[in-house]
Amino acid sequence: MNSKPSHQSEPARLVQDREELTTLIERWTPTEGVHATAWPALSFFRADSPGVPTCAMYEPGLGLALMGAKQILLGQQVFVHEPASYLVTSVDVPVSSQVLRATPTEPCLCLTFRLDMARIREMLPEVTAGRPMGAPTTGISLSPLEDGLLDPLLRLVRLLDAPRDLAMLGPLIEHEVLYRLLTGGQGARLVQIATSGSQGHQVSRAIEWLRRHYDEPLRIDELAGRVNMSSSSLHHHFRAITAMSPLQYQKQLRLHEARRLLLAGQCDVATASHRVGYESPSQFSREYSRHFGAPPLRDVSRLRLAEVASG
């Protein structure tokens, strides 16, 4: 399935603001890779050429593609993220991401805005009064970009050149961004995840527990009990949101953490496999190779070479 919003002609104001934002982000990203900004929730990404698929953990966040295109795989679902669309990730999900279209003169440029789910929950009583609650849906979705959402993001990026103004106005603009998300096309998805007692919120609690205890044996009935769900209901709704079972999710968490440990040079392969919960280093190496496309040491060496080349 190819999840890609269709766009007709965009309003002139939206095109103008998107072009200004593209110019600003290009200035803030002189080299390839991820660039942090003075506003902690905001970061930029640049790639000057198409790339190979890379595995990553996406946190709850808002993503804008300003130039070029990226492909994101969640399970068997394919999302093509291009300009004039925005992507919302409502829970932590492991994905495969690939830059599809980029050149040095027309790079792939993206903006990421990390979502503060605690603040979203605080806003729910004012925003959701009288709105029906939908069923849990996949943790990633694309929608056509709306001017009401682009405008505060553009104002926030402009403030990166004015630190004093950013400190005073940034919190207000962030509140506006969250409000626009909750009242826009992706609002129902975030409401389902954030509302206490909803099935989406119960799954998000299960995900939070797995992220803290990924190195421990997983017993589905115990996890279901922790989040007040039956085992069958947890399986069903967990797969609906993450496109995988809790056990598959835990395995990917373990592999991502082991990769981080190896890349940081904190331990050898056998120690990394043990730290993330594997009893057999050989099983760990097989599953690592299957997931990342190369054995641990070769994969880490490849990543380090890529960092040097882009840096």
TrEMBL record:
- Any Pfam family the entry gives: AraC_N
**Is Hydrolase there in the keyword field?**
no
Instruction: Give GO terms: molecular function aspect only.
Output: DNA-binding transcription factor activity; sequence-specific DNA binding
**Coiled-coil regions listed:** none
What positions does the domain HTH araC/xylS-type occupy?
Answer: 204-302
- The name this protein carries in UniProt is AraC family transcriptional regulator
Q: Membrane: present as a keyword of the record? A: no
